[in-house]
């Protein structure tokens, strides 16, 4: 595998009973790219993301993530790969409500290896939340909560950042802040894969992969 290619699928297929969600899909994503998966509801983009983030398994074909063939991994192996290689940002924030912003980020460190409060403080400060470290999610705006999610996804320095409709619950002002942050991270060399149905968000990416009924379309 070319070292510049961080994600590669070959004839990837995922079916749920008689429904084929992803249909013989072959794609490549290079290290440092900002790629958007776009398509209407039911196009297969969320299923594809779940497979690429090791949250789901394939029915047929091949998937390689940062050189690792997912077929060689059991559930424990997929969990390790997800913890070490992948950062996830969801539309729903999934923050622990009784933990502060700092503690939510440190929790991700705990599941990875060991906690490092200084590193967690730094990443929150870097994204403009140094003054909100000890606030609970309920005391944060939607945009601030999403930035905590991004900090949580980045704190273990994964090579891949996946964002699933990252501004879906945000107003226009906070949407611009979060998208600006993703652009800044991309400028630092991060590989970012964003799932969206919104063409305005897709325009921020280097490249758009459009899906329709589980296949890439022009």
Q: Can you describe this structure?
A:
A hairpin with a 2-residue loop joins β1 (5-16) and β2 (19-30). This protein is 34% helix and 28% strand. The radius of gyration is 17 Å and the shape is globular. By secondary structure, it is α/β, with parallel strands linked by helices. The chain has seven helices and ten strands. The strands form two sheets. It has a six-stranded mixed sheet, sandwiched between helices. A four-stranded antiparallel sheet has the order 2-1-4-5, with helices on one face. The protein has helices at 45-52, 75-85, 101-112, 117-126, 142-154, 172-187, 199-202, and strands spanning 5-16, 19-30, 34-38, 60-65, 68-69, 86-89, 160-164, 191-196, 207-212, 215-217. The two termini are 25 Å apart. The longest helix has 16 residues, at 172-187.
